[in-house]
Amino acid sequence: MKLLMALDGSAGSDAVVHEVASRPWPEGSECCVMTAVDPYFFTKAPLLLAEAKKSAQEALDESVESLKKAALRLSTLVAMENPRHGIPKTAAEWKADLILMGSHGRGAFGRLLVGSTVQAVLRHAGCSVEIVREGRERSGGMRVLIPTDGSECATLAVRAVAGQPWPAGTEMRVISCPEIPVMTGANPYYPPDLVVEVATANAAHAKEAVEKGVEILKQAGCSASGEVTEPKESAVRAILGMADVWGADLIVVGSHGRRGFDRYVLGSVSESVALHAHCSVEVVRGVAQK
User: Fold this and answer.
1) Strand order across the 143-147 sheet
2) Does the reported pTM lie above 0.70?
């Protein structure tokens, strides 16, 4: 497995280093620890740019020291590009399987700037992306929440979880959030039995998706349970609510669901969950296994 850690020297980056160091990874995994320095800000100060690159490399070397106990092959890279472009580009060139980056950046405008960087990476990276947030202190296993709507991408997310090693005692919970049927058109009236029929079909599909997800995880030897939430107008609220109530450490979600995904339009479920969750979120991309 090839991990790309995108750091910027902030507290959010410290959380990424701690997360990677504390989790088991597949045998033979590689980790490239990178940072991106935007040359635009040094256009009229080339000497300062050289100094910034040197400082960035020193910070990466320090981070690598913290990772030496992990069974990973380590390398570093300072990319001289805007992070929004440099991170996805580096991931593509290095053929990364997973990008890990923090949710908070540096400076007074850090949250705004890194928020835009996170969105850009989520939308343009060709591999999975994990947004790492500081969570509860873990003495043992993790709590991993996996939302599913039964789509190919949701199933891929479940399989990605099933295919990775996890700390002993890790619990998995697969959930599905049937949406309240909203019907519109020229005639605003719909027979009550039609609304009930649609709602019943949605609930049945959600139950089937959860059972399939739990079965995949149990076949891989994971401790897994499933739940169909109460119907909600917003799947995002249902997922975030469950993550908070259950105390999830990580949400793993597919990059898009049955409705499809326009990576240039705000508001997708995966993007909204990644940006607003209180815990870490991994958005999974890849080729589904048959």
Assistant:
1) 73-79, 30-36, 2-6, 98-102, 128-132, 280-284, 250-254, 143-147, 171-176, 223-228
2) yes
Q: Comparing 2-132 with 143-284, is the CATH topology the same? A: yes
For the chain, give the mean pLDDT. Answer: 84
Q: Where are the chain's structural domains?
A: 2-132, 143-284
Q: How far apart are CA 209 and CA 226, in angstroms?
A: 10
Report the top-level CATH class of 2-132.
alpha beta
Name the band, by pLDDT with cuts 50, 70 and 90, for residue 284. very high
- What one-character-per-residue DSSP string does the chain give? -EEEEE--SSHHHHHHHHHHHHS---TT-EEEEEEE--GGGGTT-HHHHHHHHHHHHHHHHHHHHHHTTSS-EEEEEEE-S-HHHHHHHHHHHHT-SEEEEES--SSTTHHHHHHHHHHHHHHH-SSEEEEE------SS--EEEEE--S-HHHHHHHHHHHTS---TT-EEEEEE-PBPP---SSS----HHHHHHHHHHHHHHHHHHHHHHHHHHHHTT-EEEEEEPPPBS-HHHHHHHHHHHHT-SEEEEES-BTTB--TTSS--HHHHHHHH-SSEEEEE-SPPP-
The more confidently predicted of residues 21 and 190 is 21
Under CATH, domain 143-284 is a member of which superfamily? HUPs (3.40.50.620)
Distances (CA, A) of 224 to 169, 200, 204, 207: 11, 25, 20, 15
Q: pLDDT of 19-49, one tens digit each?
A: 999 999 999 999 999 999 888 877 777 788 8
